[in-house]
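U., I forgot to send this yesterday:
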Amino acid sequence: MLVASVLWGTTGTAATFAPRVGPLAIGAAAMGLGGLLQAAMAGRSIARVRAVLAAQWRIVLVGGAGVALYPLAFYTSMHLAGVAVGTVVSIGSAPLASALIERIAERRRLSRRWTAGATLGLVGTVLLCAAEAAQSGSGPGAGSAGQTVAGVGLGLIAGVTYAVYAWAAHRLITRGVPSRAAMGSVFGLGGLMLVPVLLATGAPLVASWANAGVGLYMALVPMFTGYVLFGFGLARIPVSTATTLSLLEPAVAAVFAVLVVGEHLPALGWTGIVLVIACLGVLTVPARRRRASRRLPAPVPAPPRHEETTGATSGR
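Result:
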């Protein structure tokens, strides 16, 4: 999950190397081509469990719709509000959306550890967002206050759709669908939904080698490789934990925005990054073992030896 989050954190910065390509084209190319590639690689696995997938078609459809909507909202959010703000809001809102979905759909109770980690992470993302929003119009990637507000709104939509397709994939996995088939079916359907958007907006992607290179990088590295790792993680941890671990993405995106794009991050923003890292520590460091007296059953007294029993009962 953490490696996937680092890969995802490079997408906003990579998009800035193709400034003539619109956010809809970038999103459709990244998630669309990446999703179709996942489906192709998982073709045999999908074929083996096609009956199970057919029985769960509603979940596959919901997940595919989430995959299709997420990149359109996410990249437009970054285009309007800046790389750091768009990423922070989109990913920062996902854990709460995931927790709400799990609570409603699965009646899952959230642990104190998750609550503590999510609180640290969300406070950190809010600080990052505030630090960047305060500089609207003052640097690369920053726009007017109205654009920032619109970008934040689209970021919230992206966070919800991210939580939706993560939940759908996890639901399929818990119902017996292998991770590769679950991710391939959900992302493949989402990729198909994005093909019309790519055809309508993707002409600038083939206008230069630089633009084409950005599109291929986005599809192959963050989207294909990142989501293969994401599916591997979803098979082992709850959705709420997976989306909370992905809070590393906005921290990585903010650092790249500073180092590569030239955006300025004040002390408040760096404080937010520290809190996000603390959140990851809370969620990933193994919990201490409880005291042995609380974990081990009460000792069972050993039975008397045969000789002692015989002597006591025979009177020898």
